[in-house]
Predict the structure.
Amino acid sequence: MGHDAVLTSSQIFDADVEDWRQLAGPIRARFRTDEFGQGLAFVNAIGEAVELSNHAPDITLTKTGVTVTVSSHDVGGVTDRDITLARKISTIAAEAGLTADTASLMQAELALDTNSSDRVSDFYAALLGGQPAGVHAGGDLVDPTGQMNTLLWWQRPRDDSQFPLPESAVPQSWHLDVWVSHDEAEGRIAAALAAGGHLVSDTAAPSYWVLEDPDGNRACICAPMVH
């Protein structure tokens, strides 16, 4: 396989990058830190290691951890060079005594049900300072500055006749998609059900599960499909 060929979720899983998980596209790792200076030193070490590679990750630094996201934007997916970079970053983390926290990894998306995605996408792009792009069938919203971590996309309304809404529910145009790693999905679903949620459908599992809150508002737990 070529160095720049986009890997499938199964190929990423088989690569066995232990600290990393795929969410909605890229692979991501979060390393816990005891204080801000420790995280800053880790970020600087990553910067020195990738300075000459012309393939840098996206990094979020907080006082409790460093989150690193890796993908090949030029081909729109994860490639072998991302796997190589992920392993390099894991080595730097191990040398710094940092531990990966895979259980807390998450990515959220907001989905709008609409029959006119072409008509509304420009409005939301202007509202949020982004630009619509054709990643999903109906497009999605891309923030070129990288500040909007929550993705926005649109889909055609689905037929809910098979799973009618409870009387307490109001018509719903928006729903939340929560991406977690493949090995965290069942635990997140169990927690949501224990908190009063209800499983609407698991027919699309292990790609996604449809849940609803106690008032009937729906959301999805999503995970990359492997094997």
About this structure: The chain has five helices and 13 strands. The first strand starts at residue 21 and ends at 22. Residues 80-95 form the longest helix (16 residues).
